[in-house]
Amino acid sequence: GRLVKLELENFKSYKGHQVIGPFYNFSCIIGPNGAGKSNLMDAISFVLGVKSSQLRSSHLKDLIYRGGAINNSIDGLGGNDTENDASGPKRAWVMAEYHTSEGQVLKFMRIITINGASEYRFNGKVTTYEKYNKELEKQNILVKAKNFLVFQGDVEAIASQSPKDLTRLIEQVS
Amino acid sequence: GRLVKLELENFKSYKGHQVIGPFYNFSCIIGPNGAGKSNLMDAISFVLGVKSSQLRSSHLKDLIYRGGAINNSIDGLGGNDTENDASGPKRAWVMAEYHTSEGQVLKFMRIITINGASEYRFNGKVTTYEKYNKELEKQNILVKAKNFLVFQGDVEAIASQSPKDLTRLIEQVS
Amino acid sequence: RYNLFYSAFKHMESKIQSIYEELTRTRTSANGPVLHGTAYLSLEDSEEPYLDGVKYHAMPPAKTFRDMDHLSGGEKTVAALALLFAIHSYQPSPFFVLDEVDAALDNANVMRVASYVKRHASENFQFVVISLKNTFYERAQALVGIYRDRDVNSSKVLTLKLDGEYEN
Amino acid sequence: RYNLFYSAFKHMESKIQSIYEELTRTRTSANGPVLHGTAYLSLEDSEEPYLDGVKYHAMPPAKTFRDMDHLSGGEKTVAALALLFAIHSYQPSPFFVLDEVDAALDNANVMRVASYVKRHASENFQFVVISLKNTFYERAQALVGIYRDRDVNSSKVLTLKLDGEYEN
Ligand SMILES: Nc1ncnc2c1ncn2[C@@H]1O[C@H](COP(=O)(O)OP(=O)(O)OP(=O)(O)O)[C@@H](O)[C@H]1O
Ligand SMILES: Nc1ncnc2c1ncn2[C@@H]1O[C@H](COP(=O)(O)OP(=O)(O)OP(=O)(O)O)[C@@H](O)[C@H]1O
Ligand SMILES: [Mg+2]
Ligand SMILES: [Mg+2]
């Protein structure tokens, strides 16, 4: 099976509702520094149930889009306090559409609110994290092992991890 | 003043005696992966008195060139044990030639032997580490602060260092 | 538990060499031989494997046998990718997400890794790769371009299928 | 001790903005305005500066004011270089050695950083930079090419002055 498209609303630097995709067998995400490429990887990790600490955020609520004052310093002019809206969105969600090799369409969705509560939906129905994760494991998506997600800056450490860590990783996939 | 040239003998991947330079105001070190670029930075750091743990080596003797068995696996052929010389060099040294802005030529040299002993020479005369470091400090080369050496992979961490660390760095240069 | 671990280890052990070979194959000159690296896994204590640990060794082509710690940045990246793909061969997750794994690679290694991904990407082994290097992304089937829309202070997305179709 | 620290801090504080501005100056479109980032240092506890610490803040152009931790890889690299150059301005070591600091930078940022280095390199501020990106090294005065000589199993060096002279 494979990941076909992603929908997100107010997730990190993605304001409002956006649809991303389709994803092909080999898709490349490109763009300038600070555009939001790693945030897109965070969106994929988030919808799979990865904890916020792995998504460069100390609290889940940091994952919700925040506008805030923009730094519009222009040569010759000072000042930069525009659009200082403290009234940003109160929730964010990501939905991943996954097609199994038998042609079934699965929808995984995760929603967070400003008070940090997480809600999981599988094919539109609210469910527990355990059941949600079970459905992912049926597709061989083992989030605990995370051997298929390589975050920015982490690749070299994989080669020099200790024998203990490597053993634990092999245990998680066996 | 500035660094003009480097001479080294049996330092890391540099076999035998080699002269590197001249260095200009803006020199770029280029070459394929594994060629020896970071080893050259290690040579510069080494001659300034930086500890071996910062040079990706647990012991000083790892800094001495070692030939060893070469992996010459070729498509279709197996095996790879050639030139298995356990009799490699027993010492290594690096010498940096530095020209002060008044036109004086200074030579800093550091030698290590297989048993890990370090020897420092300033303008050809053996001296203690303290005196050697004093001569470097006269040229504003503050090795303790290391604010002028950025090792591979370390640059991002400089921006997100803790206020305590940043304070300590400013103290070291003040 | 021991049997599960052991069969996983044996499987990865059998795969790691051919994967690393494919990622390190280099022709030294136009008519020269094709060199490649050597990689293997070993058990520190083969009586009780999950007591001590699995050690990974990788030697780039024409290099001496050294500790993994002495590999350069680029050499470590290639060795790491080979290990990841070997683990995947035992327990194939349907997709990989890789964030700028090519940052430390020189052009030759970027091409080898991108060609490996292109060769192995399929319906059941999907790759989503973030890269800044055109030598990498020009080999993809499709691009997901992210830009910052300053007017609305938000990230925006464009998708481009590389055989010409344009979707938004 | 306090006075020394304070004068160092004051000096860096006065320099950091102009350095970060030079590293982040972007023209958004052909006739558009030139935007730049904002950076400053603040004392967490101004009574006793070396009790608590100096905090560094950097905001890329047209971005919101956020914690340094939320910056992207490339944004952090640029902020880090600005800080290093600000510290250097107070206590100028004669040379800098930078090892692939451009690994996380996109082409526009590589050009800005390389141009900064080119503009500031001098007799008393020398740069030795390791880079894999031609956008960076083509701006250098001279190249030090490192290659591996397989026959003797050793690193070797060639020096090339970019205005044409060739030395070995
Ligand atoms: N909750 C949020 N709301 C709005 N913007 C956010 C939020 N969280 C992070 N950001 C912004 O997202 C930007 C970082 O994006 P990201 O890390 O995805 O960049 P990137 O494209 O990966 O860049 P690079 O190529 O440098 O790695 C930062 O500038 C940060 O301010
Ligand atoms: N004492 C030594 N004797 C011989 N070779 C050594 C020694 N120490 C390290 N090496 C070799 O040096 C090589 C690494 O060189 P280095 O880290 O300088 O590469 P690099 O040019 O920086 O590559 P990259 O672009 O990937 O960062 C390794 O392959 C390692 O085996
Ligand atoms: Mg990123
Ligand atoms: Mg290196």
UniProtKB/TrEMBL annotation, chains A, B:
State which stretch of the full-length protein is shown.
2 to 175 of 1240
Q: Where does the UniProt annotation locate this protein?
A: Chromosome; Nucleus
Its family remark reads: Belongs to the SMC family. SMC1 subfamily.
Name the source organism. Piromyces finnis
User: What's the name of the protein?
Assistant: Structural maintenance of chromosomes protein
